[in-house]
């Protein structure tokens, strides 16, 4: 099987999407080491670009303004190849964003249950959308809205009960298969 990812001339960007806590940032970093690609996290890029942390951006500028920053990041904030990009959890939500990201490289969606997301996000207070009295109810409500959007992404990996290495290898397999033109079946 031809493997384009071993050809330095063909290194399409690998974008990770999915709900908060599915592991885009942590798995993305691991993937970038394995592929010897540059790792970029859209949340960190925006924080640096605007000079504010995410909670401050949401509080002072609002979510819609943040979504515009995410669009600008995809359009002009990173190299055209050789990158693993961990997208912010809501980056693909506005209409047209899945198509925009897919025009820049290979998009893979990570999935996890409400329980897993709650467990993985509860230790950390830097997600303004989950900084509410009942984060579980908020996750349920947001996930119900967003799940149909993430499911539009053709390449998908489930992360529930799987180790970092296992998820990393599953993403690598489908990225490489996709790059070499091999059909990939969905795994939600
Ligand atoms: N497969 C996994 N097994 C165990 N823990 C995991 C796994 N994937 C992620 N985690 C843990 O879950 C937490 C959230 O992961 P991470 O920050 O990578 O999520 P994210 O998808 O980037 O979230 P966000 O959309 O908010 O940026 C981290 O503490 C990470 O170590
Ligand atoms: O899912 C979301 O809407 C978000 C996820 C995070 O990565 C950050 O982009 C921010 O907290 C919003
Ligand atoms: Mg992240």
UniProtKB/TrEMBL annotation:
Protein's pathway: Metabolic intermediate biosynthesis; chorismate biosynthesis; chorismate from D-erythrose 4-phosphate and phosphoenolpyruvate: step 5/7
Residue sites binding ATP per the record: 21-26, 127, 162
Listed GO MF terms: ATP binding; magnesium ion binding; shikimate kinase activity
Gene: aroK
Name of the protein in question: Shikimate kinase
Record's keyword terms, sorted: Amino-acid biosynthesis, Aromatic amino acid biosynthesis, ATP-binding, Cytoplasm, Kinase, Magnesium, Metal-binding, Nucleotide-binding, Transferase
Reactions accelerated catalytically: shikimate + ATP = 3-phosphoshikimate + ADP + H(+)
Localization (cell): Cytoplasm
InterPro entries hit by this protein: P-loop_NTPase (IPR027417), Shikimate/glucono_kinase (IPR031322), Shikimate_kinase/TSH1 (IPR000623), Shikimate_kinase_CS (IPR023000)
UniProt key word Nucleotide-binding: yes
UniProt-annotated binding residues for substrate: 43, 67, 89, 146
Cofactor binding comment, as recorded: Binds 1 Mg(2+) ion per subunit.
HAMAP family named in the record: Shikimate_kinase
Pfam families, per the entry: SKI
EC number of the protein: 2.7.1.71
Family assignment from sequence similarity: Belongs to the shikimate kinase family.
Function: Catalyzes the specific phosphorylation of the 3-hydroxyl group of shikimic acid using ATP as a cosubstrate.
């Amino acid at each position: 099987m031809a493997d384009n990812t071993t050809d330095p001339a063909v290194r399409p960007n690998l974008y990770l999407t999915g709900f908060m806590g599915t592991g885009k940032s942590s798995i993305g970093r691991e993937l970038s080491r394995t592929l010897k690609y540059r790792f970029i996290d859209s949340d960190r890029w925006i924080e640096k670009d605007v000079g504010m942390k995410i909670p401050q951006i949401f509080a002072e500028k609002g979510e819609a303004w943040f979504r515009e920053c995410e669009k600008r990041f995809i359009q002009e904030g990173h190299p055209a190849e050789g990158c693993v990009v961990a997208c912010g959890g809501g980056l693909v939500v506005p209409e047209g964003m899945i198509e925009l990201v897919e025009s820049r490289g290979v998009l893979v969606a990570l999935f996890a249950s409400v329980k897993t997301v709650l467990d993985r996000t509860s230790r950390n207070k830097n997600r303004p959308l989950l900084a509410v009295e009942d984060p579980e109810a908020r996750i349920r409500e947001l996930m119900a809205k967003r799940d149909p959007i993430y499911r539009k992404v053709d390449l998908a990996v489930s992360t529930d009960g799987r180790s970092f290495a296992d998820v990393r290898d599953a993403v690598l397999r489908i990225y490489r298969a996709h790059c070499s033109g091999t059909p990939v079946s969905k795994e939600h």
